[in-house]
Amino acid sequence: MSVQIFPSKPTISSSRRDQEFVKGESVTVTCEAPSSYLGSRFYLYRRDQNAPIETDTAKSSQSGVTFNITNLLGTGSEDYSCVYKHEVSDQEIISGRSDTVKITVVDPPTIPGISLDQQTGVYQVGETVTITCTVNREYRHPIYFYRDNKPLSSHQIFTKANTGTFTIASRKEGGRYQCRYRTFIGKRQLLSQPSRAVTLTVTEPLMSPEISFDQPTGVYLEGETVTIICTLNWGYHSITYFYRNNELLSSHQLFAKDNIGTTLVTNKKQGGLYQCKYRTSIKARWLESPLSEPEMITVAGK
Fold first, then answer.
1. What is the pLDDT of residues 200-223, one digit of tens each?
2. Enclosing H/E stretch for 88
3. What does R_g of the chain's alpha carbons equal in angstroms?
4. Fewest CB within a 10 Å sphere: which of 51, 104, 249, 283?
5. What pLDDT, on a 0 to 100 scale, did the predictor assign at position 218?
C-alpha cells in the first residue's frame, strides 16, 4: 500500500469560539476532513511536535472527530493541529496539517472572602450592617451579595466598591450571607464561586426594665434598708446596673445581686431619682438596655 500526501487539509476548531477556557471546564477540539472522506483516522498534535498526542477514527458516516483534551491541559496557551489518513482505492493517503488553533486555559477567579462589621454577627433591629467582600486586587468589578442563596437586589442592599450596607428592618433579615463577583479574564467574563457563608443573627432591641422599691411610697427613714428591684423583660442571663440622679452606683453605695439592689439609708443625700438598666450577651455580643423610667426615693427624718 502506497502513501501519498493529500492536498486538502482538515479544519480544526475548539468548543469555544474565543478559544479561552477556565481550568476545570471541558475542553474539546474538533477535526474535520472533506465531507467525502468518511471514517478517516485523525491525529492530534501539540505545537510542532512530530508525535501525535491523541488519535481517533471517525464513524463510517462521519468526516470528523472530537478530541476531549481536558486532562492534557495546564494553565497557559498551546497550539494544536491535526491531520487525517484515509484509504482511497487501496491507497492510504495522509493530509497536510490543519491550521493551528490556540487553546488558552486560565485559572478560575479566586473565591472571595466575606466579613461583617460586627464580628459576632449579632445585630439589633434598626442597626446598620456593613458586609465586606474581600476580592483579589486584580479584580475590580461588580460585587453581588446573597442571603440564604438568594441574590439581594439594590432595594435590599446598597453596594459600593466591595462593601454592602443595609439597615435591619426585621428579624427576617437574619440568615447566611455570601458574596461573589464578576470579572474579565482575557476575553471571558466570569462569575466567581460564592464565598463561605457568614451567619447574621437579628434580635429585637432590648426593652427598658422597670424599677420599683420594697416600700411602694418610696419614702424611707434613716436607718432603714432600701430594696430596689429592676424587673427585666428578658430571658437571658443579665448584669444589672443601678443609678441615682444619672450617676452609676458603685458596690460601696449599693449591694447588687442579680436584679436586686439593697442599701442602708444613712443620710438624706441618698434620696433622689433612681433608675436601672441591664446588659446581656447574645452569641458573644454584649447588648445594653435603655434606662428604666426614674422613680423617686425620699429620705425622711425620724
1. 999 999 999 999 999 999 999 999
2. strand 76-88
3. 38
4. 51
5. 96
Is a pLDDT exceeding 80 seen at residue 89?
no
Map grid coordinates 432591641 to a residue: 205
Q: What is the pLDDT of residues 24-35, one digit of tens each?
A: 888 999 999 999
What are all long-range contacts of 136-142, with beta carbons under 8 Å and residues at least 24 apart?
136/109, 136/110, 139/109, 139/110, 139/181, 139/183, 139/192, 141/181, 141/182, 141/183, 141/184, 142/181, 142/182
- Please report how many Cα atoms fall inside a 13 Å half-sphere around the Cα of residue 44, on the Cβ side: 24
> Which amino acid type is present at position 17?
R
Distance (Å, whole) CA 133 – CA 112: 6
Using alpha carbons only, what angle is made at residue 247 by residues 241 and 252, rounded to the nearest 5 degrees? Answer: 65
Closest CA to 3 of 82, 80, 116, 84: 84
User: What distances in angstroms separate CA 241 from CA 97, 113, 205, 206, 270, one per listed residue?
Assistant: 87, 40, 18, 15, 17
pTM for the whole structure: 0.76
Q: How far apart are CA 288 and CA 229, in angstroms?
A: 18
Q: What number of residues does the chain have? A: 302
- 289 grid coordinates: 438596655
C-alpha cell at 285: 455580643
Q: Using pLDDT thresholds of 50, 70 and 90, give the confidence band for residue 7.
A: low
Whole-angstrom distance, CA of residue 184 vs CA of residue 10: 33
Residue type at position 97: R
Residues pairing with 132 in the sheet: 115, 163
- Grid cell locating 280: 446581656
Q: Which residue has the higher pLDDT, 302 or 239?
A: 239
Domains in the chain with CATH codes:
3-106 (2.60.40.10), 113-203 (2.60.40.10), 210-300 (2.60.40.10)
Question: Angle 138-139-143 (CA atoms, 0-180°, nearest 5)?
Answer: 155
Choose among 43, 51, 52: nearest CA to 10: 43
187/102 Cα distance (integer angstroms) = 14
Cα separation, 100 vs 77, whole angstroms: 12
